[in-house]
Structure of Tryptophan-rich sensory protein:
Amino acid sequence: MRLLVLLCSIAMPVIAWLSQTGAFGPDQGTISDRYPTLLVAAGYAFSVWGLIFLLDLLYAIWQTTGARRTEPLLGRIAPATALGFFLTAIWMPLFSAGLFWACVVVIFGALMALAWCAVQLSTAGNARRYRLAWLALSIHAGWLSLAAFLNVAQTIVAYELLSTSRMLGWSLALWAISAVVLLVLNLRMRGNIAYLAIALWGLFAVWFKQTEWPLTGAVTSAWVALGIGVVLTIQTALLRLRQR
């Protein structure tokens, strides 16, 4: 299973590169622009995938070497980690193919798998010995916590499931659900700094994009994103203080 984690960690950047070359169809940016929403982030935010893939690869190599090969916790999370990496990898060609419903199922599956791993690592005794694993999986789960809801919004627009001219109402509902997910997972992780940092990166990118977005309700959505970031920061500070 450790080897599968490593193989899947290699597959993610390889498939990402192929996706950007058009091997599976239009790249993610092109498709995203076709279905504008009130939850979309500025393009620069998605560069974080480079950091995610690098940390995941380093973690995957690390957990196959030395004493880590027999570490019980790393062995316990290995199946879920491999699943999360695999689902992340296959999401990219699915999105390029326009299979949005499949993408929603896949991205939430990846989120659940990697968030569970991050919770296990955040609550483990002597957590410093798992610092690389904690950092890699917390950042990956944190980004998916936002990306999953951006994916849902684009699916709604792509299939015209709800109004595409008056999107603020259902967008606020998605924001509310995403806020609950972020706060609950952060609570379970006891105020995870890495999780907070990547969430703030994404939320600020949404604020940046929406303040200049021509869609009706964009400014409101921008400030909601910023507000969620403030609440998440306060929660993290309180959780860290309580631990001390």
Summary: The chain is about 75% helix and 0% strand. The first helix runs from residue 2 to 20. The chain has one domain: 2-243.
